[in-house]
């Protein structure tokens, strides 16, 4: 796909992997709409790249609909959707307090929240974006659009406490090929990236010894991934029309240990 002049939506585009992708797309002449809950950061990134910010909660149909309406009013129907919105937590399925002996289980409302944002929110944006892409005229190879999702290496190597996060990300991996097949006759491609340990705002809150230990656990290169490296792969997926229905680990060859 030729990127210049296309419109794109990046969910979670106010920071981290989403921000890097939004900036990378804009540098290629793409008109970018940022979906995020953080209005202060989202507005700042949108202003810096000549984009538009849409305050969107991916858990809510009305919010997502309003976001797409605003984005399309500004730039027209998007040909590119990159789903980066998501979050995680760390809670054991069931555990015993070492001091009191009290037994607890994973709060189901927290499990549901992770799945609602990471998995259902991703699919909600895919379905609504793809419905809009169907109205576009085909480009080269009959292509109408491309969708890039963000899973995680936790989808395959989930650690202790990651039952909700890992299952939500595994769901994204699992739906990649079926959704690509759903949309193949309409010229819409669907791929997913599984990032490893990246230097995102979450990592910035950790103490330096922890960051260094995480970096040292990566086989090669022994460092945290740079958001620009995620963005580079996302852009190549958009450019390369033969990439479809695939999931790509971007992780420096790491395989996560149990903890």
Could you provide a short overview of the structure?
The chain is of the alpha/beta class and 259 residues long. It has 9 helices and 9 strands.
What would you note in describing this structure?
This protein is an alpha/beta fold. It has a single domain (7-250), classed as NAD(P)-binding Rossmann-like Domain (Rossmann fold), CATH 3.40.50. It is built from nine helices and nine strands. The protein has helices spanning 16-27, 39-49, 61-75, 108-133, 154-157, 163-183, 201-204, 208-216, 227-239; strands spanning 7-11, 31-36, 52-55, 80-83, 94-96, 103-105, 145-150, 188-195, 247-250. Strands 3-2-1-4-7-8-9 form a seven-stranded parallel β-sheet, with helices on both faces. Helix 1 links the parallel strand 1 (7-11) and strand 2. Helix 1 (16-27) crosses helix 9 (227-239), helix 3 (61-75) packs parallel to helix 4 and helix 4 runs parallel beside helix 6 (163-183). The longest helix is centred in the middle third of the chain and has 26 residues, at 108-133. The protein is globular, with a radius of gyration of 18 Å. The protein starts with 6 loop residues before the first strand and ends in a 9-residue tail after the last strand. The mean pLDDT is 96.
């Amino acid at each position: 796909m030729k990127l210049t002049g296309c419109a794109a939506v990046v969910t979670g585009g106010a920071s981290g992997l989403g921000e890097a992708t939004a900036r990378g797309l804009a540098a290629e002449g793409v008109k970018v709409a940022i979906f995020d809950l953080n209005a202060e950061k989202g507005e700042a990134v949108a202003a810096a790249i000549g984009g538009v910010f849409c305050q969107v909660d991916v858990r809510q149909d009305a919010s997502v609909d309003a976001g797409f309406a605003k984005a399309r009013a500004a730039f027209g129907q998007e040909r590119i959707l990159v789903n980066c919105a998501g979050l995680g937590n760390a809670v054991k399925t069931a555990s015993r307090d070492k001091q009191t002996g009290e037994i607890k289980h994973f709060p189901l409302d927290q499990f549901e929240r992770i799945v609602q944002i990471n998995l259902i929110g991703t699919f909600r944006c895919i379905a609504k974006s793809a419905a809009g892409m169907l109205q576009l005229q085909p480009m080269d190879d009959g292509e109408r659009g491309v969708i890039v999702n963000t899973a995680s290496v936790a989808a395959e190597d989930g650690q202790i406490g990651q039952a909700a996060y890992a299952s939500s990300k595994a769901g994204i991996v699992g739906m990649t090929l079926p959704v690509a097949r759903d949309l193949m006759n309409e010229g819409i491609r669907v791929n997913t990236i599984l990032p490893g340990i990246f230097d995102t705002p979450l990592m910035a809150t950790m103490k330096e010894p922890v960051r260094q230990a995480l970096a040292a656990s990566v086989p090669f290169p022994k460092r945290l991934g740079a958001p620009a490296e995620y963005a580079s792969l996302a852009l190549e997926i958009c450019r390369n029309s033969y990439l479809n229905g695939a999931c790509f680990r971007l992780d420096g060859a790491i395989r996560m240990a149990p903890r």
